[in-house]
Structures are given as structure tokens and as C-alpha cells.
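hi! just following up on the protien thing from before. the input was this:
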Amino acid sequence: MLFPVLEKHGITEPPSIMWTEHNQIREKKKELHNLTKNLNALEFQDFKEQLRDIAGALSNFLSSHFFKENNILFPTALQVITDNERKEIRKEFDEIGYCCFTPTQVIAMRTEEVKKQKTEETIEAEGMLQFETGPLSKEEVEAVLDSLPVDISFIDKEDRVKYFNKAEGRIFVRTKAVIGRKVQLCHPQKSVHVANKILEAFKTGKKDVAEFWINLNDRLILIRYCAVRDKNGKYLGTVEVTQDITDIKKLEGQKRLLDWKT
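and the predicted 3d structure came back as:
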């Protein structure tokens, strides 16, 4: 939430450095996790030595990272972020939730704000969006997209994030601050060149789909990028669809409609 706002003020280097360090810290945490998983396969002395090395490196990473946050990143943010931006950032923070818990007063405040907003909103007739296969209201379209069991993000032809759905239990968290942000800034620096190659292949018509799958928290995640084109084949943008397929891979036989039970 914070980095996109800083980028709008022309501040890109501190977020870029912090993001790189996030990846480095994450790798050390993975090493630590894998070490504990293989505990029974190691001699205790080997385990202690590896634990000391990994934990020591992680400790140094975190100490340095926190110092940069407290002495560079946050002071810089306080200098440039406006009061209105700060309020919006706080609102988004509350919506995402916090590291260990969301304070009860935040939940109560959020609930009251939603009620107040609904009360103050002027009730207007919903305009209908006319599709070839039938009309839908804006409310229906949004509800349909949010009810799909997949994460959806749309990047326009200028490579800017234009939309994301708010599916329950999103795999990758998105905030409204990313709207209008260049998609290249949403990827770690080491993978930006790959993202650019995919977009270029979509724009030139060489490719229409790019698929990847990763293991995340012991779940298999499928990530698909699809070129979006109009009826004449003109490139309009790219849609990213992310789905947890762990349980889908386990399916066997068949389950028909008549087999469904409440």
C-alpha cells in the first residue's frame, strides 16, 4: 500500500531496495523452514551449524532492514505523503489486516464507516450494461467477478493496472493504490524482463497465453496471463487469473449434478 503512493511522488529507490530485501529475507525464511522439515535426516551437530548460519544471516538481514525502514523509508514517507493519502493508506491497512491480528476497534470502526456510507449514499437507479449475451447491472457484474473462485487483475494496453476483483480469500493481496500503477513495478526486479517479454508477445500477437505454477504455503497455485483483444484482434490489455488448484488436482471419477447434497 505504501510503495505505490511513494512512487506517485517520484520516490522509487527506497521501495525498490526494500522489495529486494523482502525477497532475500523470504529466501532465508524458506531455508530455515526447510531445515526444520529435514531435522530427522541430519546429525544434530550439522543441524546446529546450519541453524546458526541461517538464523545468523536472517538476524543480520532483519536488523539492517528495520534500520532502513525506521531511518530512511518511513521518514521519507512522512515528508511527502499528504494528510488525505495518509488517511487512505490507513484505511487500506485496516482492510488488509495486520501481521498477527486486526485490533477490535479497527473492525468496529470499519463496520460503522460502511453503515454510514450506505446511509449517506443517494439511491440511484442502476444503469444496465448491454452485452451481446444479455444485460447486467454494474452491481451484478461486480458481484459476479468477486464471486469467482479466482484472483483477477486486468492490465490495460499501456501496462497499467486498471482493475482487480475482490474474491473472498484472495491468494495475492491487492489494494486500490495499485490502480494506475505500471505493472512492471508490481514485479520483483529479477522478473521484470520476463513480464516485459510476455507483454510484448501479447502485443505483437505472437502469443495469447502464458501459464506458470508455484508452490505457496503447501498449495499449488496456477497463474495464467491471457491477452485481451477486441473483435478485430486489437490488443486491449492483459488479464491475470490466479487459482488454487491443489484440490482440483485430486479429483477422480465423477460427481454429477444429481450427486449434490446439502
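The mean pLDDT is 88.
The chain has two domains: 2-119, 149-250.
cheers
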